[in-house]
């Protein structure tokens, strides 16, 4: 590197921006080419998720003091695809297929995921039988034509579907992977007649043998395509209006990256985008902390997910089934959900998140989820119109979460509303007091989450006690930290999620004791001390990287963005600073090299004790979510 | 490592060992799937994998064919009687003889003793349905044989490997007697690979927790399953209940074949007695007692709830009796190749009986077992082909919801052969594969629809062997629900449209089409109580016809 080049960099730093949209919060990370990192958290705009991104990118560029032209790429992990399937909110989808085979999609591979379960339910096909139409055409197994495509038949089928209100059409003919001619021609016909309808041919999605797998993957692609396309187009458009002129890269289900236009054509490869990004990040962070074997635990507003990181490698699979509720991917047992033959990070998921609604059935049994209040209206404590008791409400009532505000003050919390909702929905029906009810909600949620962790470890004969939990997502840490009943790793350290002076609200000693009992290392002090405990066996007085600013007197009413500006490569969360505070901390010069927190370097002792860093990105933690770069020691 | 006492009291380790064992058998199953050659094993998944303890008791079984489960103990008894005490590391034993531990000839059982030093720690067991075992009909599955000698090569417990050295004589004998030696040899290697995986992983588990502790956990796992089972049964009403179901015929006479079961619920166990069932029959639908036990075990197991491990502990609570010389406990040389059919009827009769004991748990009758279609012959270049295709299935209506359509019989958990795979391997074209309207029994919760599948022969000629049932005795409904539609077989539905018997072996010519329509499931509860919206949905989806709706659900029209 020449001195000139370095000089240029100093004058004109570039940056990369990472964006993750959760059900509740949108997180934005900006990495400057000079190594400085900026993090920003905004409330998600559920109906138009790109709005929060666009506003956030503008804000974080301001924080970083960089012009729009400096952005080299925008990286994005999205849950739009998976949410579309979970909420059954995809396009009204039709299927055109070979005569005699319209039921292939619904028959599937006829196995059940479990033996001896007579109450099992097969997932509802994404295309109803009335919308699966057959066309006269047939190929032999070698691709030669047995019956030519009846074009009038294909046109009729398309017209009938569109007349019935169908918005997306999947095409899958037998043996098309050997000879795509019929599918191509049918696609042309349908597109020409109905230019406004999304059309996906199976050969473009999965040109492989086995008609059910190909049909299912293609149908899912068609089902989510319009939603995903609209979303990415709006996002690109929004970024363009800001003047961002660089590729938008979307995380694929297997943890790679691809350009947005591909995600608009083949969204089925991006369904696991959000969780995959989290797992890859967790693997990087765990590696940086010196632990090769880890369990990534990601709890958001709607679901909780677990994945295995075995000897540094993220577990992957080349086909999986997407479904709501417990989903334990297995290479052998299938038939639980929508078959997707696409490469993906192996993630087990349970339908219990911070926004999961607690309810009591007529027989007096407490349930949590699978309905979720999401981020909007959100839990009762948000005071945004949601009035059902959720897991977050229980945490607020119990003092596990800041009873005044979350996300560094970006979000006001109304403990009284939480208590009232729990009282009405759970405590009274169960005949217990509010605190008992809240504890019950938490326990039920924890049991579900433990299933996710168990399914990637114990159920595969892997002893989780050899592993380290990396908890992240909105609520990962607040649940991971105190769940003694989990099959949890012994050595884990909850994150420095609680920052700010008035925090944490729960009795420190009690929690420390309970942590110790279950083998956790309690850390609930100042960020600096947290860093020490996480990475070093001995306290070092010199290690005071960033002094957290005082908690804000109030939040800025006009913007929901909370900014955390960092002056070192390892930044610690702060409560939302006032605009002037942002300016100050943003302009603070980096601490001299010798005063860099040596404690941040994972010590051998830390490695030995398999310290865990829990990342967090809200509401449990008014803080940042460290990106993969955050934990690296330089 | 850990001592016995602490081992038995550590619930976390117990859970890990339990799941590790389940994981080992699933890993074995996965190995078979990834290495097998024939579609019946690779795609249909007609095989199962098991771990046994040194005494031959089942410790864990993969989520494969449930009907194989109860047959392993009897097979282990034969193997231990023949070789017990004389095993050496590297030994591999196989058998398929129904009168020496087997079920029917195509199912080859393979056992590999797992050694730690000189001590047997257990057995890795893999059963796979070979695509051919010789005999007079391709697929070795015919229902119209009259002696076991017609059914193919019989293998009593024999060492396929002796201390790691292959028994060339046995290999050559098998290869000379089967129609598709490459596929059979390949599938045998797949079984062996899975046994090796089971051995390796089980030894790894022992290495981790120690021999004494692991065996203690294994014993505890069996006892635990027994405790859970007895707890559940203790909550059932006490007494005796009976149920009678029928098989249409054995393919030789028109005589209906009764399957009679009486279940007696005791304090914490059940006795299942098949006295009153038909004497053994001429055709090949006789079933070994081991297979009948499987069917009885799994039916009870379905009513125990989720968490009971599948092992010897469950079997201890269930006593199964069938008179000698009956269709459920035949004497040699009775033919048994198509015994699966009888096993399914045993399951149906068991569910019919259990519905009276635990009515909120049992669905109406399902399709009555898979239909097996074998088409074998020679292609243009005289190379042989054999298609063994299995059609499944539908569940009956359930206490709180409709039956499922397009689903395996709960006693199998087999898959289907993708049409694209089948057609690329044999000169056969599948012209249709879908639901047949009106085939599910009407009810408050209707039965699932039956499947239709038709086969066109693209070679000059071939032998067709088709085994179906439930034509005279369609799947029953429960508590007011209607029966499902009967099965049908038709030759050339678009031409001569000839009705074929339910069990048939016949010659097919080029261009012939055989269409099979399977039964659906029976209905559950009074059809008059079915929600009008559900009827309308079925109409819109073409799952029932206007006529059917008017006849059974006039209130919803």
Topology of helices and strands:
The complex is a heterodimer of chains A (634) and B (557).
Chain A lengths: L2 H9 L3 E7 L3 E8 L4 E7 L5 H16 L6 E7 L2 H7 L6 E6 L5 H4 L24 E4 L2 E2 L5 E3 L3 H13 L4 E5 L8 H13 L4 E4 H4 L5 H32 L5 E4 L5 E3 H6 L7 H16 L5 E6 L4 E7 L2 E2 L1 E2 L2 E3 L15 E3 L3 E2 L2 E3 L5 E5 L5 E7 L18 H8 L6 E2 L4 E2 L2 H16 L3 H23 L11 E5 L3 H5 L27 H10 L9 H9 L26 E4 L13 H9 L16 H5 L26
Chain B lengths: L3 H6 L1 H25 L3 H4 L4 E6 L5 E4 L9 H13 L8 E4 L11 E10 L2 E11 L28 E5 L2 E2 L1 H10 L3 H29 L1 H24 L4 E9 L9 E9 L4 E4 L15 H13 L10 H4 L2 E4 L17 H19 L13 E8 L5 E8 L27 H7 L2 E8 L15 E7 L3 E7 L20 E4 L6 E3 L2 E7 L3 E5 L14 H9 L5 H7 L5
Description:
The complex is a heterodimer of chains A (634) and B (557). By secondary structure, chain A is α/β, with parallel strands linked by helices. Chain A has 18 helices and 26 strands. Chain A has a 7-stranded mixed beta sheet with strand order 12-11-4-1-2-3-26. In chain A, strands 13, 14, 15, 20 and 25 form a 5-stranded mixed beta sheet that branches. A 4-stranded parallel beta sheet of chain A has the order 6-5-9-10, with helices on both faces. The two termini of chain A are 18 Å apart. Chain B has 13 helices and 20 strands. In chain B, helix 6 crosses helix 7 and helix 8 runs parallel beside helix 10. Chain B starts with a helix and ends in a 5-residue tail after the last helix. Classes of the chains: A alpha/beta (634), B alpha+beta (557). Chains A and B meet through helix 4 and helix 8 of A and helix 2, helix 11 and strand 14 of B.
Descriptive labels:
heterodimer, A: alpha/beta, five-stranded mixed sheet, B: 557 residues, alpha+beta, seven-stranded antiparallel sheet, 13 helices, 20 strands, 31% helix, 22% strand
């Amino acid at each position: 590197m020449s001195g000139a080049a370095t000089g240029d960099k100093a004058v004109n730093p570039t940056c990369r921006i990472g964006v993750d949209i959760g059900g509740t919060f949108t997180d934005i990370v900006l990495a400057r080419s000079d190594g400085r990192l900026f993090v920003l958290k905004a409330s998600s705009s559920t109906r138009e998720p790109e709005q929060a991104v666009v506003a956030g990118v503008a804000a974080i560029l301001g924080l970083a003091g960089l012009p729009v032209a400096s952005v080299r790429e925008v990286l994005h992990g999205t849950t739009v695809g998976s949410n579309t399937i979970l909420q059954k909110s995809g396009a009204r989808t039709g299927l055109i297929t070979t005569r005699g085979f319209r039921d292939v999609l619904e028959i599937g591979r006829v196995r059940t995921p479990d033996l001896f379960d007579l109450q099992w339910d097969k997932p509802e096909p994404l295309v109803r039988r009335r919308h699966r139409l057959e066309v006269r055409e047939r190929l032999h197994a070698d691709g030669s034509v047995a019956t030519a495509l009846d074009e009038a038949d294909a046109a009729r089928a398309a017209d009938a579907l569109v007349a019935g209100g169908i918005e997306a059409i999947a095409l899958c003919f037998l043996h098309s992977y050997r000879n795509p001619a019929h599918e191509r021609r049918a696609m042309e016909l349908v597109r020409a007649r109905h230019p406004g309808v999304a059309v996906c041919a199976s050969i473009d999605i999965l040109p492989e043998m086995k008609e059910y797998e190909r049909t299912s993957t293609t149908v899912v692609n068609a089902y989510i395509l319009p939603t995903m396309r609209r979303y990415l187009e709006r996002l690109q458009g929004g970024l363009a209006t800001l003047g961002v002129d660089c590729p938008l890269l979307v995380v694929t289900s297997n943890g790679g990256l691809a350009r947005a236009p591909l995600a608009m054509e083949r969204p089925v490869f991006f369904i696991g985008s959000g969780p995959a990004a989290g797992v890859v990040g967790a693997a990087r962070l765990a590696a940086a902390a010196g632990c090769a074997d880890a369990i990534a635990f990601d709890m958001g507003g709607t679901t909780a997910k677990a994945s295995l990181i075995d000897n540094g490698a993220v577990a992957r699979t080349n086909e999986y089934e997407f479904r709501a509720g417990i989903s334990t991917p297995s290479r052998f047992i299938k038939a639980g959900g929508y078959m997707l033959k696409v490469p993906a990070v192996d993630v087990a998921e349970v339908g219990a998140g911070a926004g999961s609604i607690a309810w009591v059935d007529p027989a007096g049994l407490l349930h949590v989820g699978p309905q979720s209040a999401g981020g909007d209206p959100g839990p009762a404590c948000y005071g945004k119109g949601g009035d059902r008791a959720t897991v977050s409400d229980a945490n607020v009532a119990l003092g596990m979460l800041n009873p005044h505000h979350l996300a560094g003050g970006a979000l006001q919390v109304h403990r009284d509303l939480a208590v009232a909702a729990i009282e009405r929905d759970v405590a009274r029906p169960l005949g217990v007091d509010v605190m008992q009810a809240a504890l019950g909600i938490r326990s039920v949620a924890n049991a579900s989450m433990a299933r996710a962790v168990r399914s990637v470890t114990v159920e595969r004969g892997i002893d989780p006690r050899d592993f380290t939990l990396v908890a992240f997502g909105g609520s990962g840490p607040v649940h991971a930290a105190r769940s003694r009943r989990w099959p949890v790793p012994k050595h884990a350290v909850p994150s420095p999620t609680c920052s700010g002076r008035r925090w944490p609200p729960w009795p420190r000693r009690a929690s420390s004791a309970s942590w110790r009992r279950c083998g956790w290392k309690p850390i609930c002090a100042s960020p600096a001390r947290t860093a020490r405990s996480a990475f070093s066996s001995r306290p070092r007085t010199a290690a005071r990287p960033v002094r957290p600013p005082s908690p804000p007197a109030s939040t800025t009413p006009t913007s929901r963005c909370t900014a955390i500006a960092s002056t070192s490569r390892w930044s610690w969360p702060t409560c939302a600073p006032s605009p002037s505070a942002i300016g100050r901390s943003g302009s603070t010069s980096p601490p001299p090299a010798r005063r860099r927190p040596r404690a941040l370097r994972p010590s051998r002792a830390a490695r030995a004790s398999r310290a865990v860093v829990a990342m967090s990105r809200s509401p449990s933690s008014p803080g940042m979510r460290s990106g993969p770069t955050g934990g690296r020691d330089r | 490592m850990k001592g016995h006492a602490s081992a038995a009291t550590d619930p976390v380790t117990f859970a890990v060992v339990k799941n590790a064992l389940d994981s080992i058998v699933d890993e074995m199953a996965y190995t078979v799937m990834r290495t097998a050659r024939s579609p019946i094993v690779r795609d249909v998944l007609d095989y199962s994998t098991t771990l046994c303890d040194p005494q031959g008791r089942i410790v864990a079984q993969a989520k494969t064919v449930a009907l194989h489960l109860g047959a392993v103990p009897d097979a282990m008894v034969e193997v231990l009687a023949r070789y017990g005490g004389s095993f050496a590391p590297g030994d591999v034993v196989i058998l398929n003889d129904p009168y020496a531990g087997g079920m029917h000839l195509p199912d080859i059982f393979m056992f590999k003793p797992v050694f730690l030093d000189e001590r047997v720690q257990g057995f890795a067991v893999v059963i796979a349905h070979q695509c051919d075992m010789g005999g007079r009909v391709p697929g070795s599955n015919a229902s119209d044989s009259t002696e076991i000698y017609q059914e193919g090569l019989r293998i009593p417990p024999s060492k396929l490997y002796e201390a790691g050295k292959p028994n060339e004589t046995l290999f050559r004998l098998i290869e000379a007697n089967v129609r598709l030696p490459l596929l059979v040899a390949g599938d045998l290697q797949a079984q062996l690979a899975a046994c090796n995986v089971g051995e390796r992983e089980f030894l790894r588990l022992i290495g981790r927790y120690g021999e004494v502790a692991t065996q203690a956990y294994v014993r505890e796992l069996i006892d635990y399953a027994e405790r859970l089972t007895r707890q559940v049964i203790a909550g059932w009403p006490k007494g005796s209940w009976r149920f009678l179901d029928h098989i249409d015929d054995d393919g030789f006479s028109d005589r209906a074949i009764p399957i009679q079961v009486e279940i007696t619920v005791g304090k914490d166990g059940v006795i299942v007695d098949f006295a009153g069932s038909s004497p053994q029959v001429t055709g090949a639908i006789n079933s070994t007692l081991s297979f009948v036990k499987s069917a009885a075990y799994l039916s009870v197991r379905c009513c125990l709830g989720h968490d009971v491990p599948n092992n010897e502990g469950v079997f201890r609570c269930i006593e199964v009796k069938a008179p000698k010389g009956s269709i459920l406990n035949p004497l040699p040389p009775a033919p048994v190749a198509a015994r699966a059919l009888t096993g399914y009827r045993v399951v149906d009769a068991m569910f019919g009986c259990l519905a009276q004991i635990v009515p909120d748990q049992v669905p109406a009758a399902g399709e009555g077992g898979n239909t097996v279609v074998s088409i074998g012959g020679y292609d243009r270049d005289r190379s042989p082909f054999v298609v063994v295709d299995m059609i499944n299935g539908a569940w009956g209506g359930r206490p709180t919801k409709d039956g499922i359509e397009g689903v395996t019989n709960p006693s199998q958990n087999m898959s289907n052969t993708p049409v694209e795979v089948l057609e690329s391997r044999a000169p056969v074209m599948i012209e249709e594969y879908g639901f047949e309207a009106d085939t599910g029994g009407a009810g408050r919760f209707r039965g699932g629809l039956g499947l239709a599948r038709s086969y066109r022969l693209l070679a000059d000629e071939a032998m067709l062997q088709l085994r179906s049932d439930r034509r005279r005795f369609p799947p029953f409904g429960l508590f007011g629900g209607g029966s499902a539609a009967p099965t049908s077989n038709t030759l050339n539905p678009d031409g001569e449209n000839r009705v074929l018997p339910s069990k048939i072996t016949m010659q097919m010519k080029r261009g012939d089409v055989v269409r099979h329509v399977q039964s659906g499931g029976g209905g559950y509860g009074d059809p008059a109580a079915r929600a009008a919206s559900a009827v309308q949905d079925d109409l819109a989806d073409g799952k029932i016809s206007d006529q059917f709706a008017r006849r059974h659900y006039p209130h919803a029209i």
